[in-house]
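re: ur question from earlier - yeah i can do the single chain one, its not a big deal. heres the input i used so u can compare w yours
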Amino acid sequence: CCRDSSNESGAADTVSLSVSVSELEDPTDTKGKKKRGRPANKKPRKSPAEKATGGAKGRKANGVPQTNGEGGDPVTLFEVVRMGKSAMQSVVDDWIESYKQDRDIALLDLINFFIQCSGCKGTVRIEMFRNMQNAEIIRKMTEEFDEDSGDYPLTMPGPLWKKFRYNFCEFICVLIRQCQYSIIYDEYLMDTVISLLTGLSDSQVRAFRHTSTLAAMKLMTALVNVALNLSIHQDNTQRQYEAERNKMAGKRANEKLELLLQKRKELQENQDEIENMMNSIFKGIFVHRYRDAIAEIRAICIEEIGVWMKMYSDAFLNDSYLKYVGWTLHDRQGEVRLKCLKALQNLYTNRELFPKLELFTNRFKDRIVSMTLDKEYDVAVEAIRLITLILQGSEDALSNEDCENVYHLVYSAHRPVAVAAGEFLHRKLFSRHDPQAEEELAKRRGRSSPNGNLLRMLVLFFLESELHEHAAYLVDSLWESSQELLKDWECMTELLLEEPVQGEEVLSDRQESSLIELMVCTIRQAAEAHPPVGRGTGKRVLTAKERKTQIDDKNKLTEHFIMALPMLLSKYQADSEKVANLLQIPMFFDLDVYSAGRMEKHLDALLKQIRLVVEKHIETDVLEACSKTYSILCSEEYTIMNRVDIARSQLIDEITDRFTHSVEDLLQEAEEADDDDIYNVLSTLKRLTAFHNAHDLTRWDLFGSCYRLLKAGIEQGAMPEQIAVQALQCSHYSILWQLVKITEGTPSKEDLVALRRVVKSFLAVCQQCLSNVNTPVKEQAFMLLCDLLMVFSHQLVSGGREGLEALVFNPDSTLQNELLTFILDHVFIDQDDENQSDEEDEANKIEALHKRRNLLAAFSKLIIYDIVDMPAAADIFKHYMKYYNDYGDIIKETLSKTRQSDKILCAKTLILSLQQLFNELLQDQGPTLDRTSSHVSGIKELARRFALTFGLDQIKTREAVATLHKDGIEFAFKYQNPHGAEFPPPNLAFLEVLSEFSSKLLRQDKKTVHSYLEKFMSESMSERREDVWLPLISYRNSLLTGGEDGDRMSVTSGASSKTSSIRSKKGRTPIHKSKRIEGGSISHTNRHTLRVQNSRNTFLILNSLNSSGHGLQGVESVPQGCWPIPQMQMSWLGQQKMEDSRKDRTAMNYMKARNQTVRQTVRGLMEDDAEPIFEDVMMSSRGQLEDMNEEFEDTMVIDLPPSRNRRERAELRPDFFDSAAMIEDEHTHGGIAAF
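and the output i got, formated as C-alpha cells:
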C-alpha cells in the first residue's frame, strides 16, 4: 500500500523502539493533553512537535499503550471501546483529528486496536509497521497469543463483552461514516486497513480470523451505505444537470452546468473507488470466509450479505450474491442456517423485491420447504415464517404439495413450530374470502357473524387431517393468528342450531361432531389461557393484560352458553359423542353469572336437559360427563347449589328405586331372568356407579344391593359380567366414601367396626372373583383389591391417625400368592396367547397393552410400599429382559424403589429371580446344561443388567452385593451330585451367572467372598480343569482379580489394622488408648465409618452393626461363643471377616512367638510401627471391640502417606495400583514398562 514518504522521513529519526515514556513527555507540562474518549469540544490534541516534547499522562510511545497509573483512565482505542463510557462519535472524531496530524501514528493506533480486539497481548511497533510486511507482522503477533486460554473478546461470556461486540461494530460503522467525504479516498487509510484485515482473516488463528472477518463485514456494510449515498447524490446531480440543460439558452447557466459536470465526475470517481474497496473485501475476505470451518464466522458473513442486499438491492440483489445464501441453506450448523433464513425474510418482507427473487425462489424453494422439518426447532420456525412470506408475495410460488408439508405441522408438539404453521394455515385458508359477499350471506340467513364459511373451511381441514384426537392442538396453533375467528362462539352455535335451507349445503353429522369438538377446545383455551397438555413446560404466570383477557373471555362464553347450551343439548341429546363434548362446557362457566344475571330459568333448562340425557344414555363417558357437571354445579361456593342439589337428589332417588326393584326381580328369578331384567339392573347400576364416583351416595346404601348381586353371582355362577364389573366398582366407591366420612370426623368405635366388616367382606368377594371365568371381572377384582390394600395399609395410620388402626388390612400369604399368580397369567403373556382375532387392529392391541401395564403397576405399588412381601418381586424381575419393551420402565422403577427401602432384601430378591430362571432352565434341559445356548446367555445378560443397577457407589451397596454372592454360592452348592463328589453339583453352572456381579464387590470384600466359597469346595474341586468345572474356575478368577492385594492396600473393618495404621503415622498417639468404655457395652450406633485416604485410593469402610436386624433377613445367626455381645447382630460380611481374623491371628501369634527377635529388628526399621501394617482382620476380644468403637465415634479421616517400609518387606510384592510404586519402579527399572 502507498504511504506518505514525507511523514515517514519526518518521524523516523525521532521515534525508536528504545524510547521510553519519560523521553517523550515533558514533566513540567502536564496540562492541555486531551485524553481519548472525551467530548470533541474539549481542548484539541497537541501537534506532533508538542507530542515529541511534552504532553499529558497516558500517551503512547511507539504504539505501546500507557496508562495513567494504576486504575487510570483508558488510553488505547481498545480500552475506550471495551469500556464504552464515551460516545462513539467523540472517540472517532478524536482519532480523525490525530490522523490529520500524523496519520502513521493514528493508523498504528488503529492497527493495534484490531490486534488487541483479537485477544492478542502483543503490540505493533512503529518500526514494525514501516519496515515489515503484513504477513510478517501477523506472524509476529501470532507468537504473542496466550496459549493457555482459547478465549478472546468476541467469545468471552458476560454482559461486558457482549457490549464490547456492539461497541466494536459501532466504532467501525461510525469511523467510515465520519470519513466518507474525504479520508477514505486518500488511498492510504482504506488500503492499509483492508490489507491488514485480509491478512488477518486468512490466519490459522481463530481469534484473528473471527475478529477480522467481523470487522471486514461491518466495514463492507458501512461502505455499502456510503455507495448508496453516492448513488443518490449522483441521481440528484444528474437530475439537476438535465433540468439546467433543458432550460432555454438565455436562462441556462453554463458555469452551473460545468460545476454539476465536475461534481458528477467526482462522484463517479468516488463511486469507482468505493466499488474497488468493496470488491477487495468481498473477493479477498467474504468469498473465503463464508465457508470457514468456524460456524460463527460463516454466520457473520451470511448475516451481513443479507444486510447488503436489503440496503442496496440494485447492486447486490441478484443471483451473483443470492447464490451464497442459497448454498449456505445446506450448512451443517443450525445457527448458520438460521442466519440464512432471517436474511431471506428481510428480503421477502419487501413486496417490491419479489421480481428480483423469482429465480432464487424457484431454485431453492424445495430446500426451504424441507427446512420446515429441520432438527433445530428455531430453524424450522424461521423456515415456516419464510414460507409464509413467500405465500403472501405470490400464492402461485407454492404448490399444493408444498403447502401440505406445512399444514401438518400445526399438530407439532413443539409450540413455536405449531404457531408458525398456524400462521401459514391462516394465511392460506382465509386469504381468499370475500368479506362483502359473506356479510350479505350472513344477513340473508339472519346470522350475526360473517365467519360461517371460514368455520366450515376449518372443520373440513380438521376432518381431512384425520387426527381427530388433536383438536386441542389445532386450536392452540391457530390461537394467536385466528383468535377472532376461534372466539366467534355465536357463529358456531348458529351453524349448529340453524335449520337447513334449500339450495345451501348443511353440515354433515361428522362435520357437526368436529365443530362441537373444536368449539369445546376453543372454550377451554379461552378459559384456561394456557396451551394443552404436551405443549409448553407448564402453566406460566399470566400478565395483567392476559389475565384481564381471560376474565373477559370467560364472562363472554358464560353469558352466551348459559342460553345456548340447553338448546344444543336438546337438539343433540340422542348423540352420545356430541352430548359428551357439550357437557364439558359448564366446567368453564363463571357460575356467579346465573345468580347475578338472574338466569335461573336457564339453569333449570340445563338441569332438565341433563336429566333427559341421563335417562336416555348408559354410555360411561356420557354418564361421567353428567355426573361431573352436577358436581361442578353443586359447589358450595355458589348460591345455585341448593337448586342443583334438589334436582340431583330427585334424580338419584328415582334411579335408586328402579335399581332396588330391578335387583329384587333379578335375584328372585335367578336363572330364569330374561334380557329385560338384566338390562334394567345394568342400566340403573351404570348410572349409579357413574354418579357415585363424584358424589357421596352412601345415604342410599348402594353397597348392600351390590354385595347381594356379587354373592349371588359367586354362588350361582351365572351373573352377567357387566353387572358384576359395575357392582364391584360401585361397592368400591361406597367403601371409599365411607372412609372419607370417618377420616374427616371423629368416628366412633361402632363406625370403625362397621366399616372394617364391610371392607373385609368386600375383599373376600374380590378374592373369590379372581377365579371368575370372565376376564373383565377378574381384572376389575384385581385392580380393586390392589387399590383397597393400598388404601387400608399401614400408611392409613400415618399423620396422626392412630385411631384408624382397626381398619388396617395386611394381605395373608394366600392372597399374595393369588395376586402374583394373576399377574403371571394375565400380564406376562405373548400376543398370541390373548383371545384376539386376526382382524383386531393396532389400536385395540395398544389398549390391551395399556390395560396390562396398569395391572402390573398396581401390583408393583404393593411391593414398593411393603404391603406384599418383596420376594414376590422375583417373579416380576425375571421377566425384565423378555418383556423389556412392554414393561421395562415399570420393572426398573420397581427395582429402584425396593432398593431404596431395603438394599439387602432387594439384592436377595434379584438373586432369587435368577435362581428361578436357572431352575426353569434345568427342568427344560436337564442336568447337563448347554452353557453356550441362548437361554443361558439370556440369564447372564439379565444378571449383567441387574449388576448395572447397583450403580458406581460400591460403598452404599457393599453389604447388599456381598449378601447376593453369599446366596448365590449357597445355591450353587445346595445339592450334591448323585453320581458322587467327583462330579460337579447340579447348580454349579449358576456361578457363571453370579460372576456378573463380581465387579460390584470391593477389592477387600472379594477375598472374604472367596474365603466363603472355599468352605464349600473340596480339595479336589480346586484342582479340576474339565469343562464342567469352568463356571467355578471363572467365578474364582473373577474374585481373585483385584482381590489378592486388597489386604495390602486398604484398611477394612478390622480394628487391628486401623490401630496399626494410625500408629504408623510418626509422632501420633494411638487414639484407642485415650478412652475406654466402661461395663463392656457398646453404643447403639448402626453404622461406623472410617475414611482412610492414602496416595492411591480412598476407601469408605463400613462396619454394619444393625441392632434391629431388619436389613439382615435370612442371614444365619452367629454362634454364641464367637461374639461377646449376644443382643447385637452382625452382617454376613462382618461375620466372615471375624471368622477369617481368628485364623489369621492364630497364625500371626505363632509367627510372633517364633520370630520375636526378627520382629524387634523389623520394628526398629519400621519407624515405631507396633503391628503389621496390612492386617485385614476383625477384632474378636471385648477390649479390641471397645477400642474399635472408640475410634469410630468421631468418624475420623486419616491420611496415610506412602510408606517405604512395605518395600523393605521381602514377602510383599509391589502394588501395581499404587502411583507411588509406579514412580519408584520407573526410577529403579527404567520405566513402567519394566513390570
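The two ends are 65 Å apart (CA to CA). not sure if urs matches, ping me
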